[in-house]
Amino acid sequence: MFAMGSAPPVFIGAEEVEKHLHRASLLLPALEAALANFSSGSAGGVAQPVRTVVPVHRHGGFLGVMPAYSAADDALTTKLVTFYEHKKDSSVPSHQATVLLFDPRNGSLKAVLDGSVITAKRTAAVSAIATKLLMPPFAEVLCILGAGVQAYSHYDIFTELFTFKEVRIWNRTKEKAVKFANSVNGPVQVCSSAQEAVTGADIIVTVTMATTPILFGDWVKPGAHINAVGASRPDWRELDDELMKNSVLFVDSRDAALTESGDVILSGAEIFAELGEVVKGTKPALPEKTTVFKSLGMAVEDAVAAKFVYDSWSAGN
Ligand SMILES: NC(=O)C1=CN([C@@H]2O[C@H](COP(=O)(O)OP(=O)(O)OC[C@H]3O[C@@H](n4cnc5c(N)ncnc54)[C@H](O)[C@@H]3O)[C@@H](O)[C@H]2O)C=CC1
Ligand SMILES: O=C(O)C1=NCCCC1
To answer: For 59-101, what is each residue's pLDDT tens digit?
Structure first.
């Protein structure tokens, strides 16, 4: 099955990935470089098509295929990710992922890695990069809408990198928000409504499976920064039109946002810049304005994260 002379691929499961990537912040330098390279066109050496998403109509799910090559990292991967809107079995996570890592010199498969930990951590790390650049000065209140996997990874890196006077959480089912507040290492205020959670917040993270708006421009403090992480289908929303139109809009990928993001497509909001352009300094950050970073997730982020884990694993760290 494997070419003569090439070793069989290794399997790096979730526990091992977690061990090598115990803090999402370990990825920050590689992700910043990858975002800048992605937004530099062919000169940046990133090859990454907009992902293919196959709907699994009968079961309310989707399969995403996310290939990328980053020349700067010499990393060649594809992630396969499933996400299910209506979970039939709540013991199964809504998102499950696997990353295949290839040897770019000859195409041999080197490793199969659990992709769920990578997805959680690289997404939160990219939101942290956006926040560092776009948040208002003296941000004191963090608000997280949603209490699933991404809520935990965002909480971890945000409280590692920034100092808050108050962290608030809201979830559609309050029990999950209470569980979140009781599980994390630090005080968290559980809010009974999204509006209560958002009012006066300086930084807002939306990490829900909502398909209609849960965050309204009317509630948002002028100058706040929003990381909009959910709603990755062209007919799904987390943010209302008012917020989308009255904020300065940053995206990870223009092509992806105009293909996949209901918040962008249906609101008709104008994209101001890709995050990579701000990292490079070719577009300003405008932290004094109300800013939205619409994150859809990019394959190159998985490529650099998988390479990081594989290199650490190979070095026996
Ligand atoms: N931008 C990116 O790179 C990535 C984005 N995502 C997206 O982030 C979001 C969160 O992902 P996970 O935390 O892994 O999911 P999860 O299933 O672990 O958590 C989702 C949360 O949303 C809540 N929820 C479900 N339906 C809702 C609704 N209709 N209205 C309001 N809340 C609702 C659930 O109670 C749960 O707390 C999803 O939309 C996911 O697709 C996930 C991975 C990467
Ligand atoms: O980037 C990812 O990985 C995902 N993005 C949107 C939803 C599915 C997973």
So the answer is: 999 999 999 999 999 999 999 999 998 665 678 999 999 999 9
Instruction: Report which of 149, 69, 126 is spatially closest to residue 251, judged by C-alpha positions.
Output: 126
The CATH code of the domain that includes 16 is: 3.30.1780.10
Q: Which residue's C-alpha comes closest to atom 7 of ligand 2?
A: 232
- Residue 114 pairs in a beta bridge with 98
Condensed to tens digits (0 to 9), the pLDDT of residues 18-70 reads 999 999 999 999 999 999 999 999 999 999 999 999 999 999 999 999 999 99
The CATH number of residue 258's host domain is 3.40.50.720
Given a contact cutoff of 8 angstroms between Cβ atoms, the answer to whether 225 and 198 are in contact is no
Nearest atom in ligand 2 to 298's CA: 1
CB atoms within 10 A of CB 85: 14
CA 150–ligand 1 middle distance (angstroms):
7
- Return d(Cα 58, Cα 29) in angstroms, integer: 41
| The ligand 2 atom nearest the CA atom of 83 | 8
In three-state secondary structure terms, 75 is strand
The verdict on 34 and 144 lying in the same domain is: no
Q: Where in the sequence is the domain holding 88, given as residue range(s)?
A: 10-118+300-314
Task: State the ligand closest to the CA atom of 230.
Answer: 1
